[in-house]
Amino acid sequence: MLLLNYETQEEFEAEILEVLESELVEIDESGRFGFDWSKEVGNRIFKIVAKGILDSPALGLISLSILASELRIHVDLVENAKENRGKDKQVDRVGGCLLAFAAGLSFERGYLGFISLVPKTELIDHYVEKYGFTQYGRQLAIDGEDAIKLIQKYL
Prior knowledge:
The chain is of the alpha+beta class. Helix content is 26%, strand content 31%.
């Protein structure tokens, strides 16, 4: 998967790795993320990092709940590092790669790419327009062909 250095417009390879529980304190103390990620213990947490760079900091994080009885993966939390948000961001495509990764896990488990999330109200249109989610009340979801499109675009 390729991320984009927003300043130079150069692409670079990234990888997604599972976060160890022991890493959460360091993540929270870094000041680079606004949420308290230690509250996500019990979920599967992943980070996206620059590939091949030892000790590369997390560029973004995603917390997932596997809802096997509902044949879906729920995104409990997804967040870009502070430096990768807004018009002055350093790295682009972080969120898309994390969401595409979740859709890929859903396909691997036989859930047909079905992932869901409950975003902040002001982000609903962003998820619908940029990533192809469909709104169901306060919840958003993606599956099937739309999930494939997300994976093809970001992974």
